[in-house]
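Help wanted!
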Amino acid sequence: MKIVIDRSRCVGHARCAAIDPELYILDDDGYIAGDGFDVPEGKEASAKRGARACPERVISVVEED
Amino acid sequence: MASSAELVRPHPSHVPASRVHDFDFHDDPLYAQKGDMHDAFLHLLNHAPGMFWTPRNGGHWIILEHDLVAQAMRTPEIFSSVGQAIPAMQVDIVMPPIMLDPPEHAKFRAPLNKAFSPKSMHELSVSVRALAAELIERIAADGQCDFVSAISEPLPVLIFMKLMGMPTDRLADFREWVHQTLSNTPEREIAYGKVAELMAELIDARIRQPQNDLISRLIELEIDGEKLSRELLLGYCQLLFIAGLDTVVNGMSFAIRHMARNPVIQEQLRADPARIPDAVEEMLRRYPIAMPGRRVARDVEWNGIDLRAGDLVLMAMPAAHLDPKAFPDPQRFDLDRENVTHITFGTGVHRCAGSHLARIELQILYEEWLKRIPSFHMAPDKKERFHAANVLSIDYLPLVWNV
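Answered by r_m:
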């Protein structure tokens, strides 16, 4: 599973990091620090919840199989 | 705060009669009729178009529907933040960054992002918790209090005043001024003047002797390689004054009022404090308090509605969050609500810079209050008082509990 983030549309709600601060890393201003990541095994549910928490809907979950 | 008759203006020709609805967001009789400001907005959702023109307060649009509010706030090229006050101000005040549009907005916003980042605010947790505990301990044995003057006013306002570097002994004066700056009366311009005068004094004192506070940091701030002009520095400080002194206060009051009227929520959270962060979010969704304004930048047809440059638009956040299309069964406080992605702190580039501080304060207040105060209720023999403006405020909230 992959997380893809449209960073340009992040406005810094920081809800993703409130769900999982280890997956969703913020920069010093409190905006998302990266464009996405491969979800480590066992963290799928948390990654999905973090994506769903974004009020701007800029985080997508890409399922691979 | 009666709005004067001269503020009533017949609707302009580009507004069809079908989109006109009479509502005075500063002082509508519907607030008193419903006995609850959020219920008034729920009523509007059922009886007025999702976006309508009201002749009150100089004449302006009000957007109720969630989808339209979110769209408008994410479209600053049409819904500009420059000159957003409703009714329009007699004096031009520029408060960066809230009254600026992209691209200028970003460079004035960046310093606030740093100052109010989740990390910086987290460091305040210890002092917020200590003050919360102290204030609550003071009244716990009384079995009653006015929650506003005892807790929700001093807690966030003292934290904020210390952060800014404002004299905390003048809390009562400052709270009066901030209510005046948000009013639709001639007192508004006078109050802005008072805030500017105070901030000018504080700025001068910090220029002579810098402190570890926000005012001192703003003085040192460079944007495009230059220090801020006196005017912009004052504007910044005026914004922080208003934003810091009348927001979390009401977020706390509405939450505790809801719990007082629904003791089962208190029990649930006392039994399982791990649910408090979820409760804070759902309460923010259920009771938004801020209603920002915007000014239409150019003539445009938007979602089938004719807008003219200069039209003022109020974002009715309380209505948007009670819109059943976005939140089914919207009146229900539901800890397990799917998708609580509220935009109570706004959306788009102007997302409330203080949101991280607000969340920490709310969370700590819930924890400390529920830990120290047993089952509490509205005082049966007293009546709460509230007033509306761009911020919905509870002025008096009498509570009782057994001791």
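OP: Thanks! One thing I noticed: Chain A has one domain: 2-62.
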